[in-house]
Design a protein that fits this description.
This protein has 329 residues and is of the alpha/beta class. It has 13 helices and twelve strands. GO terms for molecular function: glycosyltransferase activity.
Length: 329
């Protein structure tokens, strides 16, 4: 069922005035054991606890707005306002799933009780996303292939990567693929083009094509200023690609202890100008980091593990709800 809305984007949703009633009637008819909501900056996020309480339904939320893990300029940002806005209301949910230890600590600083929070990271299908054969490098005549996958927007800081690449002049045999779409794509594509061995693929809807791109890549780069937990990063790691990412959001936590290279969000271009030639010249470094990246995903970020943890949380919430009901009889 799709709820009616006045406006919907990747950032927020404005539901119609009738949406709450439609949702309540649907839940009353469906009578689910558990309601699990993904909080996506909508006024319905604040009505959902009331609806579920009225229907006596256990309620779990997944809360994953992007953030800067080091809180650099964070308190003046829209991301911080989002966290401030939601923090008092999260107490009305039975459990709130967050993606990382850092996100848990941030919410606790804003007054959310630790018992309300469950850390369950994103998970990747490690069978589907795995090292394998790809002919993309030979098709574009690349000896070394560097890849970015994500939105082309200000918070993703893609131009920091493009500047470093252009200033370095990485040579004819090194190619940079930019996969994704967004508001900055037209202007950046005009300035950083094929003459610099930069290939703009736009949004790639076909999952197998995205997997082929990652399997061909030697290095995956994510220069974001703010993040939640990047699924694209986890997918690249699962494919055995050496990864470079900023410590925005939980990405630095994913790559810690040698599973990748972590950049500071300040001065990304300067850091990449040091690293990109190193990764171009030393295949043994990218191979080792790729192996470590995949192992990290197998250990902590597999889809199997994610599903198991979510199912366990459902059971825990249901048992707690039943105990609460019994105590009032």
């Amino acid at each position: 069922m799709t709820l009616p809305f006045l406006y919907k984007s990747q950032i927020y949703t404005i539901p119609t005035p009738k949406s709450s009633k439609i949702l309540m009637n649907a839940l009353a008819k469906l009578k689910p054991h558990v309601v699990h909501g993904s909080l996506t900056l909508s006024t319905l996020d604040f009505r959902l606890p009331e609806i579920c309480q009225a229907l006596n339904l256990p309620l779990i939320a997944t809360f994953h707005p992007p953030f800067d893990s080091k809180l650099r300029n964070f308190k003046s940002s829209t991301q911080f306002l989002t966290y401030q806005l939601y923090a008092p209301f999260l107490a009305h949910y039975d459990k709130v799933i967050v993606f990382s230890r850092l996100q848990q600590e941030l919410l606790m600083k804003l007054g959310v009780h630790k018992d309300k929070l469950a850390i369950i990271p994103n998970g990747v299908d490690t069978v589907k996303y795995s090292p394998g054969v790809s002919y993309l490098k030979s098709q574009i005549k690349a000896k070394r292939l560097f890849v970015y996958v994500g939105r082309i927007a200000t918070e993703k800081n893609v131009e920091a990567l493009l500047k470093a690449w252009k200033q370095l002049d990485m040579g004819e045999q090194s190619k940079l693929l930019i996969v994704g779409d967004g508001p900055l794509k037209p202007s950046l594509e005009d300035f950083y083009g094929r003459e610099h061995n930069i290939y703009w693929l736009g949004f790639v809807a076909d999952e197998q094509k995205r997997i082929d791109i990652l399997r061909a890549a030697d290095v995956f780069i994510l220069p974001s200023l703010v993040e939640g937990l990047s699924l694209s990063l986890l997918e690249a790691m699962a494919c055995g690609v050496a990864c470079i990412a900023t410590d925005a959001g939980a990405d630095g936590e994913v790559l810690e202890d040698g599973a990748g290279v972590v950049l500071d969000t300040q001065g990304v271009t300067t850091q990449l100008k040091t690293l990109l030639p190193l990764f171009r010249a030393h295949n043994e470094i990218t191979q080792l980091l790729g192996q470590k990246a995949r192992q990290r995903v197998l250990d902590k970020y597999s889809l199997t593990s994610n599903i198991s943890q979510v199912e366990k949380l459902y059971q825990e919430v249901l048992e707690r709800k039943n105990i609460s009901i019994m105590s009032h009889l």
